[in-house]
Here is the input.
Amino acid sequence: MTTSRKRFAAPQRLLHWLMAICILSMLFIGVGMVSTITSKYLTLVQIHKPLGIAILVLALIRLTLRLIYKAPPLPPDLPEPIKLGAELSQYVLYALMISMPLIGWGMLSAASYPVVLFGGVHLPSILPLSPTLHTWLWRAHHYLAFAFFATILMHVAAILFHKLIRNDGIFETMAPLLTRNQRNE
Amino acid sequence: MVQSPASPNSFRLGPALIIAAVVGIAAVAFAYTAGWLSPQRLTPKKLVAALAPPGGPALGHRRNHAKGICFTGTFEANGDGSALSRAPVFAQGQYPVLGRFNLGTPDPNAPDATVRVRGLGISIKTPDGQEWRSAMINAPIFPVSTPQGFYELLTASGSKDPDAMKKFIDAHPEFITFLGWAKGGPWTGSYAEERYNSLDSFLFVDGSGATHPIRWSLIPAAQPVSVPPDELAKRGPDFLEQEITQRVAAGPQRWSLVVTEANPGDPTADPNKAWPADRRTVEVGTLTVQQIEPERDGPCLNINFDPTVLPSGITTSDDPFPAARSAAYSRSYNSRTAEASHYPGTETGAR
Here is the structure.
């Protein structure tokens, strides 16, 4: 699933950075909203739902782009364990980006809450009312959120490792802009 | 071209520190947002835990208003609410209702005559898929002015310190107004004879986008008959549920939904403060309770009557309670549905 291209295609890079902002905001909003009873609670919940659906839509577009444009190859001298980690982390991140909004949507459906996006716009229920389903989905949403944040921290640590320690060009495959140094080369 | 990678053996402290700092700061920010670094923050967890009786919560049940009975019926809007709110539920027509009569206690087995506060939860759905949920009580005002005050009330009433309530009242003198109703207000022998009040203020948004601060009440068609509580105690622990079941079986019970609009300056942020009696009211429709069903197998069992589930055309106001209630109800719902096997006699509970 690689291409000879040295960088991800421009729409892929745009989506990556846009979604990075969305997903980090989403995780902070999620963990913040369940820890407060102030009016911030409602504001955060009202952002959480439409933002989650936006992330789902963007993730599906991104997956399509990935299948079309593929990914630039990893440096050939990258040690096997790091290569494995890099590839595995992408599967994990895609799985979380797509499953978390669906789990949230399903969780609200299984509790028979209306899934209001904004104003009178709401999504249909995707599951029947069920305490058992709700409990499974609610727990999954909770624990996967922490797993998601931990994965992102590892992702950030890894890319900084590639940039600052190995400087092997992997950061540049997704960098929004190239540094002057690289443009000149 | 990329630069050739540095030798993996030459460990450089600077970059490693930068990586550790970035990850560390992000993790601390996350922990702060989650409240882990702020033990003083009033979280839904704390608020819900404070509701529990000394022996712990009744597993599988709502953490408050734990005793209740389901009903179904209709809301028939007369169209007069449309001038105040563009919510479809106020357009003339008849809409299905799911609800629950309940008692303001965390004990699902509390004898009916021992519980002062009676409540009504309701969900009204309109054909466009929107929903309006509300949970009202028969008290004319809320016991305290703020969610923090409510937490302190729960803490004080559960405290072993004999002076705890006195200290609480000193800090929250508004509680005395509530006590006036709790001690001196009439008791009735039926859920059908109670008036149920939103207490919280909301905003109605009309067709032009203008907002109207309002509260609402369900006013019973049945004539309330005052019965002293010691008389009610003789009627058995579940007389309210038995009475409403027989009463509705004999004929549907009705309430009119009356909306009260605030004057400028009326206290919308404090449900402990009643608005003056001369405020403009609009009767917007009629609730008809047509069928009673035991909660155990009833349609209201797994419904959270979250007062912030609102159609477009109704929003929350500067009243801090709906947000606090929503946060706490959600926590209660997540806990009790995960404990469904503890709920007596349900399909899942039987296992």
